């Protein structure tokens, strides 16, 4: 319904400009529509004397304030990087979301108190036909608003606008409860307005708490989705010339500022220029196709060395024999003075209950029994992102 209209605002030179443009128009639409809904419900509440309708209206006033913060958030996020903020200001969007959540909870608590007072001292409603019409109009308006937010969120992949869309859907259910409450009292005389208001207040507080949790997660940083990791893995798998890759780390400074580091295993017989050229190609592909600024660390692997290859295969068999789906990388065989040192990292799945010390004892014992008395240096990794899509 709104796709073509939103598309007009997203046709900018850069992804960042498109995001800002769509985010600002979404904030403006939300500000105007939510304020009008507040006025409609305030009028309906005053005409009927319903605390639940007034509570619902104040919820819309809170939504209008949220839209205003959304406007400020997208504008602040669009500011270019500066000396104090070398990675830009895109996390401003998350801060505005946190402030919005605080407002939602405050509104919820204020009207929970009013609803309790209405329960203690109930008053009769005066629900005229005009009141019912205003409530039905507000439900339709919220459905349209939710559709608009959903289209805008999809266009720029914004969690803030996705939350706004879900909030609009929640508001539809909230107003339906108010409508049912007014209908019940009109036809039965049961004074349940205060109870409906209390229920709405609890729903508003709950939605605010959920929104705070999401905003805090964004600010603290969360693990990328399996889909995002899978896209990165697919791109890396296209490079048949590399031996392997591991230790992927992803962090972001906003929706369009994603950075990553990874270890790339290469044949140690390659010269430095060839290695550098391959790494450059991988980093450019990540930026062009995924919008991720990647930094690669080179790990030379002695795949041409017969001793290295033979020990590698034996270690792989030993790990497989434990039947724990253990993966390993950074494998090296080094001759130090009069001894030989074997080093490697083991990726441990989440469901493995054995401690690192127990695993070290089991693996070391089998290596010394089946391969020989080598010096061992084994590290255990239980937070490898790549295991999320490889198991």
From TrEMBL:
Residues 29-220 form the Cation efflux protein transmembrane domain. It holds the Pfam family ZT_dimer. Signal peptide: none annotated. Its main location: membrane. It comes from Ruoffia tabacinasalis. NCBIfam families: CDF. It is found in: Membrane. Keywords: Membrane, Transmembrane, Transmembrane helix, Transport. It comes from the Bacteria. Residues 224-300 form the Cation efflux protein cytoplasmic domain. It is a multi-pass membrane protein. The keyword Transmembrane helix applies. Belongs to the cation diffusion facilitator (CDF) transporter (TC 2.A.4) family. This is Cation transporter. The lineage of its organism: Bacteria, Bacillati, Bacillota, Bacilli, Lactobacillales. InterPro entries: Cation_efflux (IPR002524), Cation_efflux_CTD (IPR027470), Cation_efflux_CTD_sf (IPR036837), Cation_efflux_TM (IPR058533), Cation_efflux_TMD_sf (IPR027469), CDF_Transporter (IPR050291). SUPFAM superfamilies: Cation efflux protein cytoplasmic domain-like (SSF160240), Cation efflux protein transmembrane domain-like (SSF161111). The chain crosses the membrane at residues 94-113, 125-144.
């Amino acid at each position: 319904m709104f796709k073509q209209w939103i598309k007009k605002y997203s046709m900018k030179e850069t992804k960042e400009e498109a995001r800002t443009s769509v985010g600002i128009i979404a904030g403006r639409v939300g500000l105007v529509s939510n304020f009008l809904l507040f006025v409609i419900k305030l009028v309906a509440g005053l005409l009927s004397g319903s605390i639940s309708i007034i509570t619902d209206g104040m919820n819309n006033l809170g939504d209008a304030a949220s839209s205003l913060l959304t406007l400020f958030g997208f504008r602040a996020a669009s500011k270019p990087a500066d000396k104090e903020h070398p990675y830009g200001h895109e996390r401003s969007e998350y801060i505005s979301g946190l402030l919005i959540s605080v407002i939602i909870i405050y509104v919820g608590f204020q009207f929970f108190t009013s609803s309790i007072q209405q329960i203690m001292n109930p008053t009769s409603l005066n629900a005229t036909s005009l009141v019912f019409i205003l409530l039905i109009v507000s439900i339709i308006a919220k459905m349209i608003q939710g559709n608009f937010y959903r289209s805008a969120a999809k266009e720029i992949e914004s969690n803030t606008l996705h939350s706004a869309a879900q909030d609009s859907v929640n508001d539809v259910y909230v107003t339906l409860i108010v409508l049912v409450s007014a209908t019940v009292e009109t036809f039965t005389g049961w004074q349940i307005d205060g109870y409906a208001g209390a229920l709405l207040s609890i729903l508003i507080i709950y939605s605010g708490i959920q929104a705070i949790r999401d905003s805090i997660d964004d600010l603290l940083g969360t693990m990328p989705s399996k889909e995002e990791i899978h896209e990165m893995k697919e791109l890396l798998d296209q490079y048949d010339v590399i031996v392997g890759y591991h230790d992927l780390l992803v962090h972001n400074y906003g929706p369009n500022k994603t950075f990553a580091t990874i270890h790339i295993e290469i044949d140690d017989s390659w010269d430095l220029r060839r290695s550098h050229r391959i790494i450059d190609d991988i980093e450019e592909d990540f930026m062009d196709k995924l919008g991720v600024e990647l930094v690669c660390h080179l790990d030379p692997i002695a795949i041409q060395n017969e001793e290295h290859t033979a020990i590698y295969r034996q270690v792989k068999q030993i790990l497989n024999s434990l039947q724990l789906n253990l993966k390993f990388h950074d494998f090296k065989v080094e001759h130090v003075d009069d001894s030989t040192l074997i080093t490697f990292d083991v990726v441990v799945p989440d469901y493995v209950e054995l401690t690192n010390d127990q695993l070290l004892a089991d693996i070391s014992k089998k290596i010394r029994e089946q391969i020989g008395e080598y010096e061992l240096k084994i590290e255990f990794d239980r937070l490898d992102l790549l295991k999320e899509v490889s198991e």
